[in-house]
Design a protein that fits this description.
A four-stranded mixed β-sheet has the order 1-4-5-6. It has a two-stranded antiparallel sheet with strand order 2-3. It has one domain. The longest helix has 20 residues, at 61-80. The protein is of the alpha+beta class. The protein has helices at residues 7-16, 61-80, 113-116, and strands spanning 23-25, 28-31, 34-37, 42-47, 50-55, 110-111. Strand 5 (50-55), helix 2 and strand 6 form a beta-alpha-beta unit.
């Protein structure tokens, strides 16, 4: 696939992330004993000590970076709010065209922004 992000592009966007802000890259699964990369880039970040993986549905490293920044901003906003007994994932109902609101995958702990919205 020629439209996949290169290692240099992924390294460049990950280089902008501070320690603890997560990462952007391809995830791998095993098919018939062979390691196979994901079709699209994922980003990962932490919410309340739990790592969340989000399929960006893009191979553009810069777009994946922007999606990850939106998710991090939303997570940081929730952490600053007083505990009102509200599910923290409600903060992820983000009205933006850069976030892919596709149906989440059900296996593993992969998550989409849509599934975080509750």
């Amino acid at each position: 696939m020629s439209d996949r992000a290169t290692a240099a592009q992924i390294e460049a966007v990950n280089g902008r992330l501070k320690k603890g802000e997560g990462w952007i890259g391809y995830r791998f699964s095993t098919v018939n004993g062979e390691k196979v990369p994901s079709k699209f880039l994922y980003f990962a970040f932490y919410v309340n000590g739990t790592q969340k993986f989000v399929n960006t549905k893009t191979n553009d490293a810069e777009d994946a970076y922007r999606q990850q920044r939106v998710a991090l901003s939303s997570a940081a906003l929730w952490c600053c709010l007083p505990n009102l007994g509200v599910c923290p994932t409600n903060i992820f109902a983000i009205p933006t065209s850069t976030v892919n609101l596709s149906k989440p995958r059900t296996r593993r702990s992969s998550t989409s922004i849509n599934s975080l919205a509750g």
